[in-house]
Design a protein that fits this description.
The complex is a heterodimer of chains A (331) and B (287). Chain A is mainly α and 331 residues long. Chain A has one domain. In chain A, the strands form 2 sheets. In chain A, strands 1-4 form a two-stranded antiparallel sheet. A two-stranded antiparallel ribbon of chain A has the order 2-3. In chain A, strand 2 and strand 3 form a beta hairpin. In chain A, helix 3 packs across helix 12. Chain B has 11 helices and 10 strands. The longest helix of chain B has 16 residues. Classes of the chains: A mainly alpha (331), B alpha/beta (287). Chains A and B meet through helix 1, helix 9 and helix 10 of A and helix 4 and helix 9 of B. The complex binds adenosine-5'-triphosphate and magnesium ion. The site of adenosine-5'-triphosphate has 12 residues of chain B, from strand 2 and helix 3.
């Protein structure tokens, strides 16, 4: 028994307005995919002679960006919960190097376990310090970034370490599961799991509630601190997995691994529709954002741009993407 | 404690003082246990003493007005009761039992719901999720339910039903649309609806009709009466004395962090309430 019944005309006007709003949201959600398709088509035509759209080139784009893509999908949770993790790049380096060192003497599983445990540990330290000291994760992870970068340099005295463990290199690099290359399997598995967790579970809702309205989340009894810790654990563990995948694909590790990834990962997530201020996140969007940036880089290389020009072009794209994301800041 | 003695004893109303609601007289059980009892709550923010030895008693089926000037401490009192804030001193009892581990989670589990002044909605999330925030229904029995898969369809159906029941007109929006696209009044309707459906023992409403039009305000008053008839204790914070006189059976007045007096509305006028609030009238001291 609604007391509030408008007149017939204003009701249908309201329905139209609501439908328009829904369509607008739907259209905005498609922007990253449309952008991806557009860039793909442009490069496919312009770089036809270089075989941009060939199967092997596309496959290598996905494989080269598997680590970025996985970190971006994890980062959707972190940003979605209103946190930021600046230490993912140096987490990648420490995990890759440590795992490579362990693999010199131990079986593959031991290396993997150590690598993932480092990710878990880094994430827990980041998260617990953030909630217990009541300091923004931005500052805690800035410190962590520096600490881990130092550790990465000290671990091997700036030396690279080769990974000769074939089992490891197969699972995390050049191998395949049936006809599907390993790196595709990893990206696909993370996509499915992350998407289901974000969209279909209570935990996913709580992540977005904490990021979109901390006050409301606290007031309704959501365990805000656990959610915030978990959001930083997710970014760190996905960085650890990314580190394993770098080590497997490159069959080795160096302290420089991951050092330029932070901005790319944040940009990929934001291009994909995740809000820099929390409350909104998209896992498939983050994947598409990562592939879009990877494709852009590959296209620029094929067009003959040197490294400096690539950096400039990438920087411009990232800044534009982040600026668009920033404009969504709630009042 | 001079403040405590200034507080007239607000014993259990054997029947709600309002004669205009015979239904309530019939259904409200004259239990000897208050639905909510806050005793000696104090809370400081740095040098600001927001609450000083505040007391509040609400009986099942009672509608208690809570009035006071801006900054008198009304919202702080509500938050200390709901576990949103931790009082420096004082106890809260729900249906006679002390509320110990004070957190919103625990308070909600004990049947306390709040319409916060800021509404406590997550703008970026959909209406259905907001109605179920913190108590989303999940699939399956025990071990499986730990995975926390949402019953999204059930959430949406129930959300639509609840909003119909409490009379929130979404005007074309669906329960799957985000709250950010709603008007201020609609948002308030969602917050009130959430408290009304979940409130088992006590519902505290912090200026629930602040953004509402005439018609919607009347509807909120209907909901308050329905809560009362269900035996729920209601606390209504309002700056509108006419509203307080109209829907409440007792009023507690706050001034500078203290609850200075509790009176049946039948024994005061709006002008007297304003007098209490501003300090123009001092409550009669019994001791
Ligand atoms: N989180 C806080 N930090 C610091 N001071 C606070 C905080 N919350 C409330 N206060 C102070 O406590 C006092 C009581 O505030 P409160 O919000 O409870 O008042 P109120 O009676 O609800 O007022 P209003 O009618 O304006 O809503 C005010 O002086 C306020 O400035
Ligand atoms: Mg207030």
């Amino acid at each position: 028994m609604s007391v509030l019944t408008g007149t017939g005309t204003s009701q249908s006007a309201d329905a139209r307005a609501a439908r328009r709003a829904r369509l607008g949201r739907g259209a905005r959600a498609l922007i990253p995919y449309a952008g991806f398709a557009l860039i793909f088509v442009v490069f496919a035509i312009v770089l036809r002679s270089h075989g941009f759209a060939s199967g092997s080139n596309l496959e290598s784009i996905v494989e080269q960006n598997a680590s970025i893509a996985i970190m971006a999908m994890g980062y959707a949770f972190t940003l979605g919960a209103g946190e930021i993790d600046l230490s993912i790049g140096s987490t990648v380096a420490v995990v890759a190097l440590t795992t490579a060192l362990v693999l010199e003497q131990q079986p593959a599983w031991a290396g993997v376990l150590v690598g993932l445990a480092i990710g878990l540990g880094v994430g827990l330290v980041n998260g617990l310090l953030t909630v217990l000291l009541r300091v923004p994760s931005f500052l805690i992870t800035l410190g962590m970034m520096s600490v881990l970068a130092g550790i990465a340099e000290a671990l091997t005295n700036l030396q690279s370490v080769a990974v000769t463990n074939n089992a490891f290199n197969g699972v995390f690099g050049s191998g395949s599961l049936g006809p599907v290359p390993s790196l595709f399997v990893w990206v696909g598995a993370v996509l499915v799991v992350a998407q289901v967790v974000l969209r279909r579970t209570r935990y996913g809702r709580h992540v977005l509630a904490v990021g979109g309205g901390r006050e409301a989340a606290v007031s309704t009894g959501i365990r805000v601190r656990s959610v915030r810790v978990s959001a930083l654990v997710i970014s760190a563990v996905s960085a650890a997995l990314a580190g394993l995948l770098y080590a497997g694909r490159l069959q080795g590790a160096a302290y420089t691994l991951g050092s330029t990834d932070l901005l790319t990962v944040i940009a990929a997530a934001i291009i994909g529709g995740t809000s820099l201020f929390g409350g909104k996140a998209s896992v498939p969007g983050a994947l598409v954002g990562a592939l879009l940036l990877g494709m852009l880089q590959e296209g620029l290389i094929l067009m003959g741009l040197g490294v400096p020009d690539q950096l400039i072009a990438e920087g411009v794209v990232v800044v534009v993407a982040v600026a668009v994301g920033l404009r969504e800041r709630p009042e | 404690m001079s403040e405590a003695s200034a507080q007239p004893a607000a014993g259990p109303p054997s029947a709600p003082a309002r004669t205009a609601n015979p239904a309530a007289t019939a259904t409200a059980p004259s239990q000897a246990v208050p639905a909510l009892e806050a005793e000696g709550l104090s809370k400081s923010f740095g040098a600001v003493r927001a609450l000083e030895e505040a007391n509040l008693t609400v009986w099942p089926g009672q509608v208690l007005g809570l009035v006071g000037d801006n900054g008198a401490g009304k919202s702080t009192l509500v938050k200390c009761v709901s576990g949103r804030l931790h009082p420096d001193r004082g106890t809260v009892r729900v249906a006679g039992e002390v509320l110990r581990a004070r957190s919103p989670e625990v308070a909600r589990a004990r049947g306390i719901e709040v319409v916060y002044q800021n509404l406590a909605l997550v703008d970026s999330l959909d209406i259905a999720t907001n109605l179920f925030l913190g108590r989303e229904p999940v699939l399956g029995p025990r071990p499986f339910s730990w995975l926390g898969f949402l019953r999204t369809r059930q959430m949406r159906q129930e959300a639509a039903r609840v909003l119909r029941e409490v009379g929130v007109d979404l005007r074309g929006a669906s329960v799957a649309d985000p709250v950010e696209q709603l008007s201020g009044g609609q948002r308030q309707g969602i917050a009130v609806g959430r408290a009304v459906v979940w409130g088992q023992k006590v519902v505290l409403m912090d200026e629930p009709s602040a953004a509402l039009g005439v018609e919607q305000t009347r509807h909120v008053h209907d909901l308050i009466r329905r809560l009362r008839d269900r035996g729920v204790g209601v606390v209504l914070i309002s700056h509108n004395m006419q509203e307080v006189m109209q829907v409440c059976d007792h009023v507690t007045v706050m001034r500078a962090g203290r609850t200075i007096v509790t009176v049946p509305v039948s024994e005061v006028s709006g002008e007297m309430l304003v007098g209490y609030i501003t300090g123009a009238i001092e409550p009669r001291s019994d001791g």
